[in-house]
Amino acid sequence: MDRLVSGFEARPLWPGGPSVGPIGLGTAELGMVYGTPGTPATRPSARAAAKFVGAALDRGVRFFDTARGYGVAEARLGRAIGGRDGVIVATKASVPPGMAGRSVELSLERSLRASLRALRIETVDVFQLHSVGVEMIGREDVMAALDRLKERGWIRMAGATVYEAEAARAAITSGAYGVLQIAVHPLDPALEGVLQDASASGIGVVARSVLLRGSLTPRAASLPVRLAPLRDAAYALAAAAETDLAGLPSVAYRWALGRPAVAVALVGTCDLGELDAAIAAAAAGPLAPAIVREIASLPPVAGSSADPRTWDAPVASTVNVGDLQ
After folding, report:
1. What is the model's pTM?
2. Are 19 and 5 in contact (CB under 8 A)?
3. Do residues 64 and 89 make contact, with C-beta atoms less than 8 angstroms apart?
4. What's the Cα-to-Cα distance from 154 to each of 38, 41, 70, 312, 321, rounded to whole Å?
5. Which site among 7, 128, 151, 176 is 20 to 30 Å from 280 CA-CA?
6. How many domains does the chain fold into?
7. Which whole-number Å values give the CA distances from 11 to 15, 49, 88, 279, in the listed order?
8. Considering the domain boundaries, does residue 318 fall inside one?
9. So what's the pLDDT on residue 316?
């Protein structure tokens, strides 16, 4: 399994941990229908999913991010990686609202055991709290539960995936999490402070939503009317980077990987062309400083259209029936 060619310095996923960058694979699309509003989305067959993961491995991808909430993604990933050496796996679990005390540990343990079985491994490299908010991330019972799972040898490092900047900062200051997964894209000017704090604390950042679920691609032209501010921001970003919509994916990945805290950028796709494009972007190295300055001068996206959680309209989809796992 070859290493990826990268124009960026290798960074550890956590202090003393493995260097996994620059490109990792997000596996939501392996196990569930997932896509951009206004664009048809599909889920691959089990055979196609295995073939895609194998192709990613052949290209040197070493980091795979999955979750219990991604349908059959863990099971498909487990069959495809087959206990290969040198592969780093991160998965996620949620703590149900209102749960506290010993019940938290039992819930996380049940979820983790199911993940380990599906992934066909005995220890997961990164076990992340999934989409956790500021009110839970620093709770003593939650942090103690993660510590005990680590003591049992079931996880190497605890992590958190968050949306709000306040939750990210709470994770950083708690000292309980070595890995932080957050959306990292050039349309969020408020992100820089969080990334600086993570870097100063030695926390490795896994960059997700680098393309804003396909909005920083030519698909921006097809965004529905309710996301017009996001579409306009995509065109403005392309102009600032002296490119067009087709060039936006490369700009977005090079921008994200140019942040010192980012250890790896996820590509959430089952399309080899998109994966190859991200790998090529990483090989191209950092953006020119003048372009980085132009991007930094862009105004924030109007409204909430840059937050995928607000995309509540159903996405047109075609689901493969049968062959679920």
Report:
1. 0.91
2. no
3. yes
4. 41, 35, 20, 36, 34
5. 128
6. 1
7. 9, 29, 14, 16
8. no
9. 35
